[in-house]
Structures are given as C-alpha cells and as structure tokens.
Amino acid sequence: MLTAIFAGLTRSVLISGGLLLLATGVGYSADPFDLDRTVPGQILVRFEDGTDLGTIATRLSTWGMEALGTDPLDSNRTRFLRLRVIDSNEVDLILPTLRRDPVVRWAEPNGLYRALAPNDPECLNDPDPEGNFFWDQWGYYRTQDDHAWDARPHASEMDLVRFAVLDTGLDFDHPDGPSDLCSGAGCIWTNALEWIGTPGVDDDGNGYTDDILGIDFVRSEQGTGEVTGYDGDPNIYASDPNGSCGDGLDNDGNGLRDELVYHGTHVASIALAQTNNGTMFAGHAWQAELMVVRVLSPEGWGTWADIAEGIEYAADNGAHVINLSLGGGFSQAVADACTYAHSLGCVIVAAAGNDGQGSLHYPARLAETIAVGASDPYDSRASFSNWGPEIDVVAPGVRIFANAVVSVWEGQGNNTVGDPTYYWANGTSQATPMVAALAANLRSMYGLDYDNEAVRCRIKDTARDLNGTWDGAGLIDAFAATTPVPSGSCCLDTSCIVSDEDCCISAGGIFLGNEPCDPGTCETSSVDSGALSREVSIVLTPNPSPGPIDISYRLDRDSEVRVRIFDAGGRDVAGSDLGLRLAGVHQAEWDGRDESGRELPTGRYFLQLETGSVSQTRSVQILR
C-alpha cells in the first residue's frame, strides 16, 4: 500500500512490494536481549519532527509527566525527552498510550547498558613479572600491527582523527595514556572555544557549558538515571564528589565493588596509549586524538538516555570514529543516535557481547555499527564472545594488556585510589578498540571524508578468514588494510568498482548476484552530482526493525525517484517507482514484505534510492 502526501492531504494508491510513501508510526517490539534493568519511573519519548514546543508542553501536562534534565526542550540537545512518571509501577501501563499518540514517534523505558567485560574478578591480573610487555601484546602481532607500524606514512602525510570513547571515563594522569597537556596525536581532545571562553557560558553553542576536555553524562554512582545535569570533566580521580573512581560499595548487587572503573581507561589505551615512547606497550592508532565521553558508572552501568546523548554529542562535536565497548537490549533512542551519527559520517564500532551465545547485543547488532567479536591466541573464538550473522570482523580479546586505574575497593596496602596501573583483561570490549583504531588509521591515510561504509568494507575485505561461522569476514589484518592500493581499487574510492559485495553496495552500486563480486559485476555511479543530497543521507528508522521501516530522504532538485530493495544475494524483493518528487525532504515506509506481500525473514537487506543515474544505498536489518 502506498500513501502519499499532497499539500497536507492524504490519499492511498495500491502498489506492489509493500512500500509506503508515508511514515505511519513505529510500533515497539520487545527484544530477546532486553535487560531487565531499567531506570524506575523514567520513559524516553521522541516526538515527530516538526512538533512545536507548545504541543509538547500540552502533552506533558495531559500525561501528568515532567521532563528531566537541564533545558530539556532545547533543540540543540538530544532529539528525545527523558520523562518522569510519578508512580514508577505505571510505566508499563502508560507506554501503550504514548505509542498510540500521533505526535509520538516512539516511547520506551529508560533501560541500561553495561560495559562488556566478563563479570568474574579473575579476568584481571597483575602485569607480567618479567616485564615482557610487548609480547604481552600478542594481539599486536596477530593483527600484523607491527608490520603496519613499520610501513605507515609519515605523520605529516596523515590527517588527525578524532577518536571518541564512550565508557567509564579516563585516568587523565596515567603516564602511558593520552595527555591533556598537549594537542594533536596522542593527546586528549580539547574544545578550544570552551577552553578560551567564559566559565558558565556555552561558548561554542553546542548546547553544553564548559565541556573543555570532553563530557561526563553519568548522573549517579549506580547509573540509575537520576538527572543532576552533566559535568564537563570526564577525568577519573578519587576526590570527585560524583564518585567517578567509585565509592567502594556493591551498588548493583553482583558481589563486586566498582569493578569496572578501569574499563574506559583500558579500552581507550588499547587504541591510544602513548606509542614509540619506550614505555610499557603500544597503542594501535597512529594519528588520533581522544574525545572522552563518560556514559558508564564505575560499576559499568549506563542509561540508554545517557548513551544516546553521548553518541550524538560525539557526532556533533566532530568525532570521526566512535568506540562503543558496551551493550544490552534494543533501544530506539540509541538506534536513532547511531543512525544520526552514521549519517554525519562517523565510523561506529561496537562490541558483540560476552555471553558466549549466537546472538549479538545492541548496539553492535545495528546496521550502522561495525560489530566486533573476540578471538583467542589460537585464532579460535574466545569462549565468551558472542557471534551471529551481524558480526563484521573479530579481533584479539583474550588477555589484553593495557592501562588501568586503581578503584576504591583495591585502594589498600601499596595501592592508592586513583593511582595508574596496568591490567590484563578479556572481552569483546578489548577487541573493539583494535578495530576502531584500524578504522582511524584508514581515515588518517585516505582522508577524514573517507566514506564510513568504505572503511567498513576495507576492513572486511582485507580480514583473514578463520574458516568459522563465528568470525564474520575474519580476523582483522592491519597491515593488509593499510597497505596502499592503486587508485580505483577496492574501497579506496566509494564510486569505484570493488571486489566485495558489501563494498559494492556501499559504493552505491548494484550487486548483480555474482559470488564474489568481481570487477565488472557492479554497476556504480558517482554520488558527487545529481538530485540526491550529500549533506543529508537517507535515514532508516527503526533499524533493525520487526516490520515497518520509515525512510527519510532529501532531493536537491525535482527528480523521478525509484526505490529498490534487495537481499544480500542481490535478488530484488520489493520496490516501486515513486514518480516525480519535488526538491526537499520526503518520507516513505516499507512494511518489511516482498513483492507478493509475504513477510521477509530475519536478515540483512538493502534499500537503494535512485534518481536517474544517481543512487544511494543503505542496509537494514529485519528481526522477526
């Protein structure tokens, strides 16, 4: 069924393929990985675009709710609201009413994600007593980062990449970590306008005040979502009144105390530890600065709202790569944030999860992220690593040595709370920054505007197949990925003919069904000209989806538009000629069915929007 809008009126036209030209609202579906933990009495709501503040205020009054946070209706901040329900037991009763409201795009509880580290305390060990730190970086050799380092271009020939880590914060004073006393590669990103600006003033107009060295969105020790504003200092130190280094209590009842305070420092240093300084071990990223975004408590918990806001903050403030070593159930707020960041060109890399099961956590399961599993020193699946069809690649994730920080519960004997230290740790959390660092190196070499999907397929195209059903394209190979390739080869130019199916699709090409996608089997076209805007990408929401998917796109000029939907084998499953569309923003909806009206099974599909000789393609996941 096709529904088109003309001058504010609606009419219906029957077409094949289950494509609708009008978003009719997104239904909520429970996800099998949804964690039970939610913030009591809180609901996240996103209103339809264009809803005025008066309507929103009226709805809040009618619902008997209040918006939480500082200046929550400020359009420069998040695109959703965090609402408080007076009686926390009524959340499940209120949600259906909100979802039926025509001005509400979606509504969900404010759930929690957690840092993806195994929860047994023995996964952390003391450094090698023999001091053989480089050999402790077995992953550095396994991914051929040592050869890649030797062959890398000179720093003057590479661009500086802004690398955002959303985690438990960072020990700014660690001797082998990124420094806040410098600028450029190996340093902590500094918001220059806030640095030289007036305290208490949003000098750069990004909606946040005094966010000089990143930002801290964590509202409480337990990650319970109590909104007390944000903090412009994501540094971990013992005197922090908000407990960034922990309080020595078991706040989440799992028998451990502040056990993941080290996590953000560990993850960040895998990518960005000081390199070539003769100290301890080497980071994997060559020419990057670290943007620190604290979204998790010392026990590793963070709310969907904080994490979504953190992703949007990183994207809006120029992050080129975003590392998400965290996960849990499906959140529309987080999915929207990832779609938004991806549309701005961010490469988003996310951990698959540590349950040892054949399904991934979100946000790794989203189409916009590069999903990372973990391998062991024998090129087998790490016993804890999740796997599934959404896995893109794997990287070393067992006994990974990196920077850490002493937590409150360890602060005894010769240890002092907040002191720098070093840990070995296991997890897809540790594998993820290796892949994110490789993405950063590719953008350093080939330019900051190197297409995010081209980065994904370059990493996949050069990965080493481990001959398993768990490893996606295989184990990353940093040397192969960063070895310069001739102009016009796979994934270097997003308008070229490429050798891999995903590369072909990301290049705006049409996969013709050959296996593999050899040169000549792709029909490609440049996206540098034509009606499709480069500034506003096609946006698909929700993604993944149990059914209907909203399609938003912008035309730079009046054009004939066709939508084609095909599966991973290049076979057409749905599509429609939408006819002449005027310049501007348009919406459509696909109901997740094929040409005959049958529901398509769970899997990855591709939506291609064509205007004459120009096309853009986005992947979408159907989850039944």
Folded structure, characterized:
There is one protein chain. The protein is an alpha+beta fold and 624 residues long. The protein folds into three domains: 2-25 and 528-622, Immunoglobulin-like; 38-111, 2-Layer Sandwich (Alpha-Beta Plaits); 121-481, 3-Layer(aba) Sandwich (Rossmann fold), CATH 3.40.50.200. The chain is 19% helix and 24% strand. The protein is built from 13 helices and 27 strands. The strands form seven sheets. Strands 9-10-8-12-14-15-16 form a seven-stranded parallel sheet, with helices on both faces. Strands 4, 5, 6, 7, 11 and 13 form a six-stranded antiparallel sheet that branches. A hairpin with a 4-residue loop joins strand 23 (559-567) and strand 24. The longest helix has 19 residues, at 428-446. The radius of gyration is 24 Å and the shape is globular.
Compile the SSE list and pairings.
Layout: E1 2-6, E2 9-13, E3 19-20, E4 38-47, H1 53-63, E5 66-67, E6 81-84, H2 91-100, E7 104-115, H3 133-136, H4 138-142, H5 145-151, E8 161-167, H6 192-195, E9 215-216, H7 263-272, E10 288-294, E11 301-303, H8 304-316, E12 321-324, E13 326-327, H9 332-343, E14 347-351, E15 369-375, E16 393-396, E17 400-405, E18 420-425, H10 428-446, H11 452-461, H12 478-482, H13 501-506, E19 510-511, E20 522-523, E21 539-541, E22 549-555, E23 559-567, E24 572-581, E25 584-590, E26 603-611, E27 614-622
Parallel strand pairs: 8-10, 8-12, 9-10, 12-14, 14-15, 15-16
Antiparallel strand pairs: 1-2, 3-25, 4-6, 4-7, 5-6, 7-11, 7-13, 17-18, 19-20, 21-22, 22-25, 23-24, 23-26, 26-27
